[in-house]
Give the backbone structure.
Amino acid sequence: MAECNPKNFLDELRYNIAKKDFIKAKFLLSHFPKVPEDARKKALFELSRGEDDFAAPLLGCILSRHEEMKVDYSQVHRLLLAKLLDYPDALLEILQNPAITDKKPFVEIAGLIQCKPALPLIAGILRKSTDKDLNVACILAIGAIGDDAYITTLTDFLYSGDRDLTSAAVEALKELGTDEAVEHLFGRLGTDQEIDKAIVDALAEIQSRAAIEKISELLTSHDPYLRNYAKDKLVSLAAKAVPILVENLDSPDTDLLIHTLNILALIKDPGAALHIRKFLFKRPEDPNVRFAAYEALGELPLKAGAFTLIEGLSDPDPSVRMACAKALNRNMDSTLVAGIENLLEEGGETARSIAGSVIDSESDGLFLAFLDHPTFQEAALEHLAARAPKDVVEHFAALLEKEGRKDLAARLPSGKDQEEEEGLKIFVVDDSRMILKVFKSVLFKLGYTPRLFEFPQGALEKILEEKPDFLFTDLNMPGMNGVELTAKVREKYPKGELPIVMVTTQQDQEDREAAFQAGVDDFISKPFTKEQIARKIEELAPQKARA
């Protein structure tokens, strides 16, 4: 494309500016791509000296076609912004002027400078326009200016049927951030995963109490993806979410309680510890809830009141006892030690239960604290010799060696004494380290040595590389939930080739239907027993199950 003569171009532009001939100046500026860069810079300088009401629309024309004209957007934008800040009435005149057809740059600037008098004009443009890009700019500008009077205008576009317009409405309502805006955003959830994600992100950015309460409500959602995404957002909100989360502990909804306790464990806010302890005083009936409570306390500094948790060592459910041991291990003090010693004095099954819980949870501090207590010592050595997996025995043998207790280490079985038999190759996937320890303990007692995976993506890579004989997976996991993991595994191993059992606290039928559609063979509800696990393996892999 031939270039214009720069001198003639600039002379003509100066003449048009002097005469305020808008039509000729606009036509002349359409030749920007043909003008050398140095001449374009001079032309912009001439426009900067022109009267605001005349120069601003011309700058807007350049801005709207900056890519086509090969012009530096930021330079033109700064110049136009300066003009309109000096003379804001020019912006209103331009928005009303029917001769200026491309209003998008001016709508954007109205939003940027939060020009409230422009709101009715922008709303009028939005009602009449069929240009999607202009409509997106109008929606965003209304949100940026921020006036509740236009909230209905924005919420109408939440249901536009066009993702770009809906996304703009989500962003605009986020900018408003009022309780009414929060209600409208929440009401839009549930039909499009990407839009749902954007809405939860918006609620998390608003960070008002109403917004955080709505994210918390999603913990009861029937959609595993939405539920897990909400959990991640609540964790990211950290201390800001804790006041709302602790209120959930008054709910009778078992699943909500478990999700809430899991999130509090991840946030690790010390202020949550007192609320969880008070919650345990109510003696929740569901052992999985008790497990989640002790697991959360295992991540929190209790400072005072750890003594009250000793009761958990007598819980009828072994997984709860393990979680309690881990919580006590973190918060061990002299008072706590004295209380546990009183329990150990009962001897018999109580001592064996405490020793087993301490060992299976790998609570090293508790183990060493009671190592010289005769009842505990004998119970612990017996458990390590007969009921602990090889790697756990090796762990405590190394700990005893490090503490100079070679006499006790010598009483433990060596690796040769614990040679593992070839058998069923069982993979277990769960984002809870404590649940993985429970699985390891249970499966060892059944004669299996499982492969444990805390991260679903890592488990998937290994499964695709090395086919297991049996797969247990949790439902609710970050990054990739159990339904998604199952679907990906089934792409390589169809039903009949690899049994998959989902272990979950969820009782919701929709979750189960989604899991079955993805290829899950069956379910086991937490808390599970050794007998339940054995029965499920026998049912789905009878040819390889141990007698």
Summary: The beta strands are 426-429, 451-453, 470-474, 500-504, 522-525. The two ends are 85 Å apart (CA to CA). Residues 324-419 form one domain. The chain is about 65% helix and 5% strand.
